Amino acid sequence: MDKAAVARWLDQYVAAWRTYDGPGIGTLFSENAVYRFHPWDDGDDSVRGREAIVSNWLEEPDAPGTWSAEYEPWLVGGDRAVATGVTRYLAEDGADGEKVAREYHNVFLLRFDADGRCAEFTELYMSRPG
């Protein structure tokens, strides 16, 4: 993997989140991928396998237009990458659709398989104060 390939994967990740297209989500992850929402997740706390990851994504979809996200590769080495970015959830009462209710700064720890699919995804995030 190189930075350009990871950047494309991150763009596809955001596009899949935006559309909640099951097959689109599935193409991002290897068959036996592991998805961790927190760095301490293990065993039953992590989501294991492509089908389980797709199902998990589809359980509680975010309404269209209620969030924005920008991520970019920070470091890529071999099959591993670190990405950083910001996720913003917009206020429901914002007339212009731009008032931010919550903002998270994200770090993704990624490992890819030989086909460029994510085999391990670990998310770390912090909520911006105020």
Give me some keywords for this one:
130 residues, alpha+beta, Nuclear Transport Factor 2, Chain: A, 6-stranded mixed beta sheet, 3 helices, 6 strands
Structural class: alpha+beta
Which architecture per CATH? Roll
Order of helices and strands: HHEEHEEEE
Number of helices: 3
The figure for the number of domains is: 1
β-strand number: 6
Low-confidence stretches: none
Structure description:
The protein has 130 residues and is α+β, with helices and mostly antiparallel strands. The protein has one domain (3-127): Nuclear Transport Factor 2, Chain: A. Helices cover 25% and strands 42% of the residues. It is built from three helices and six strands, in the order ααββαββββ. Strand 3 (67-77) and strand 4 form a beta hairpin. It is globular. The termini are far apart. The model has no long low-confidence stretch (mean pLDDT 93).
Describe the secondary structure blueprint for this structure.
Blueprint: H1 3-19, H2 22-26, E1 29-36, E2 47-48, H3 50-59, E3 67-77, E4 80-90, E5 100-112, E6 118-127
Parallel strand pairs: 1-6
Antiparallel strand pairs: 1-2, 3-4, 4-5, 5-6
